[in-house]
Amino acid sequence: MHKYIFRRILMLIPVMLGVSFVVFTIMFFTPGDPARIMLGERAPADEVARLRTQMGLDDPFLVRYVNFVVNAVRGDLGRSLVTRRSVAAELFSRFPATMQLAAAAVLVSVAMGIPIGIISATKQYSVFDGFSMALALVGVSMPNFWQGMMMILLFSIAIGILPSSGYGTFWHLIMPAVTIGTSSAAIITRMTRSSMLEVVRQDYIRTARAKGLSESVVINRHALKNALIPIVTVIGLQFGYLLGGAVLTETIFAWPGVGRFMVDAIRQKDFPVVQGGVLLLALTFSLVNLVVDILYAYIDPRIKAQYK
Q1: Residue 155: how many CB atoms within 10 A of its CB?
Q2: What structural domains does the chain harbor?
Q3: Is the separation of the CB atoms in 258 and 96 below 8 Å?
Q4: Looking at residue 166, what DSSP letter applies?
Q5: What are 212-249's pLDDT values in tens digits?
Q6: Alpha-carbon distance 189 to 241, whole Å?
Q7: Which residue among 9, 26, 196, 305 is least crowded, i.e. fewest CB within 10 A of its CB?
Q8: Phi/psi at 168 (nearest 5 deg)?
Q9: Residue 160 backbone zone (phi > 0: left; psi -120 to 50: alpha; other: beta)
Q10: From CA 99, how far away is CA 55, in angstroms rounded?
């Protein structure tokens, strides 16, 4: 088991190097001079040239990339061109808000997706099954930004029971979490239904029913446990997606997370913040997938047995 976890951790290294190279390359070729942005458009050319030299912007591409990676490993992601503060400090001050929103959205999606998927699988081709699959299709197809604006119009403006924006209370969390959790709930619903349908047709399920076990015991203790691998995979992927995909939702609801901060940084051409934000989200996504891989070994003993 330790060997399995160690191998999964080692796989994070090339993934993060690849992400860092792609992000750095895009930022390198993006129009805009960080030194000019920091000093302003009216700054003398000699001051801009001196600052470029101090920041290492005149160095070759590979030298700048290696310096960026070395500094990132040390926890130094540079300084914001706008606020002049440490990028790492800026990101980590906003990261808890993004994690809170993503975790709440995952809870919403799991609470909706798994029960509906189980019921749809046990009542295949019923009215409930048809309605839930149609609803899941709508949930997958509906853009988050449109749904968010419609929820603001309905619950904040028309009814007036929820705040339209802000951060700090449970009531501020409801609409953003439901907005980005709906599409994930639809995906989890479809995956749960598909996985359960595959499992309930197995011989051991028929044997369990032949023993006289109640349907709830058969479904919850036998079928669901063996159907969890693909469901857990989807939940883990959706959690990573919600961390990075909450950008528009954070902007719509004025949620002070990493996504909104990165949108502002892109508008202001604050390159260090964009690079650091992408690296932070990529690392978090990779760690979530690592946790999911470890959970496999506890859900399915056959995986653990391979590394004994």
Answers
A1: 17
A2: 1-82+268-308 (no CATH), 96-264 (1.10.3720.10)
A3: no
A4: -
A5: 888 788 887 778 877 888 888 888 888 877 776 667 78
A6: 17
A7: 305
A8: 130, -25
A9: left
A10: 32
